[in-house]
Every structure is written in C-alpha cells, then in structure tokens.
Design a protein that fits this description.
Elements lengths: L1 E4 L5 H10 L3 E5 L9 H7 L8 E5 L5 H11 L3 E5 L13 E7 L18 E5 L11 H7 L4 E4 L8 H8 L3 E4 L4 E3 L2 E2 L1 H16 L2
Parallel strand pairs: 1-2, 1-8, 2-3, 3-4, 4-5, 5-6, 6-7, 7-8
Antiparallel strand pairs: 9-10
Length: 203
C-alpha cells in the first residue's frame, strides 16, 4: 500500500514519516494552515531518500508560482487539480498527480491519454485538508481507473476499513495525523503508516 503523508512543515516529522515507511511526503504551497515556502520545503526534505517521493501540493497555481516551487524546492511530483496542468510548464522527469474531487468525472488516468498526466491520481472531497471523507463505495468504482490514492478524512481508526472498501493503490493523510490544524503528531504518523501497510495484508 502506497502511503503519502501530506502537509508536513517540520524536518523531524518528515524524518518520522520516512523512517516509518512512507512512500511520499507532501509539502503544501496552496492557501492553507500547512502552507510553507519552497526554500523551507527544500530544507526540511534535504535528507529524504530518492526512494521516497517529494510532492509539491498546489491548487490552481500560476505558472510563475509553479516555477518558483520548481526552482527552490525541486519536487519529484506536482499534485494539483486535474484542470490546472494545461496551463503549467512541467519539465520531463516531474510526475503529475491530478486531483479529482468527489462528484467530478475522472479522466486521463490511462498512461498516454493526456500529456504529462501519469496513471497515479488523487481522489478526495471538495476541500483538500479539511478532513472530509468521500463516499467509499462510490470511490471503489473510481479506484478501478488507474492508480488511485484515496484522500479525505482518513486516520488511524478508519484507514483499514477504507482500504478494505475502496481497494485503492494508495492512501493520503494530512489532518488525520494532527493534534490541531497544521500540528503533526509523530505517533499518529507512525501508527497511520503501520495501519495502512497492515491493512493491505488483509485484502
């Protein structure tokens, strides 16, 4: 099970996620309590191994904003709403993870059907980072298209049920591993990753 820990802002929490087995770490450059600047993101992810993807999480960025993130942070992946990619200059070598929101049509998940968009994509509720859970049975139908990373309202207590119901490629958590908005908790990060990885074994 692919696990992404999102909204990280402190080096120690990035390290906790990596040590616990996270497959990706997300840094937020959109309007959010978790927003950090690209230089700070670069500093706290300096020791992240190449086996863990560094994800730039944005929302309707201008090309100038994206280029600043690319220059100062050098992510492996750009994650933003599916419709944003058409207006952005994205170098070869940067993965693109489109975000599809509950109720919207999921398209372009097959490799090669849309330039720059890979088979990996996010599926979540209307507002990122808000803890809104999507309808898992409906998400299970969407999960059959490409590699879906399920997000929205996941936490230690429900991630196993979500994985069993939806059978996604991966899961993404932000607020579910926090003690307050933007305040990550090392224990919750470890427990979430452990629960998600264990749940895959029960499928």
């Amino acid at each position: 099970m692919f696990v992404k820990i999102c909204g990280l802002s402190r080096k120690e929490h990035v390290q906790v996620a990596v040590d616990a087995g996270a497959d990706a770490v997300g840094l937020v450059f959109a309007n959010s309590v978790r927003r950090i600047d690209p230089a700070h993101a670069a500093a706290i992810t300096k020791s992240v191994p190449v086996t863990v993807k560094k994800v730039a999480v944005m929302l309707h960025p201008s090309n100038e904003e994206w280029r600043e993130v690319l220059r100062d942070f050098t992510p492996d992946v750009l994650q933003t709403d599916a419709g944003d990619f058409a207006s952005l200059e994205i170098p070869d070598g940067i993965e693109c993870w489109p975000v599809y929101r509950e109720g919207n049509t999921v398209t372009g998940t097959e490799r090669g059907t849309e330039r720059k968009v890979t088979v990996t994509y996010l599926f979540e509720g209307a507002r990122s980072g808000s803890g809104e859970t999507v309808e898992w049975p409906a998400a299970a139908n969407v999960a059959r298209q490409g590699n879906m990373i399920l997000a929205g309202g996941l936490g230690v207590q429900n991630v196993a049920e979500a994985i069993a119901t939806v059978r996604p490629f991966g899961v993404d958590v932000s607020s579910g591993v926090e003690t307050a908005p933007g305040e990550k908790d090392a224990g919750l990060i470890r427990n979430f990753i452990s629960a998600a990885k264990a749940a895959e074994n029960n499928l």
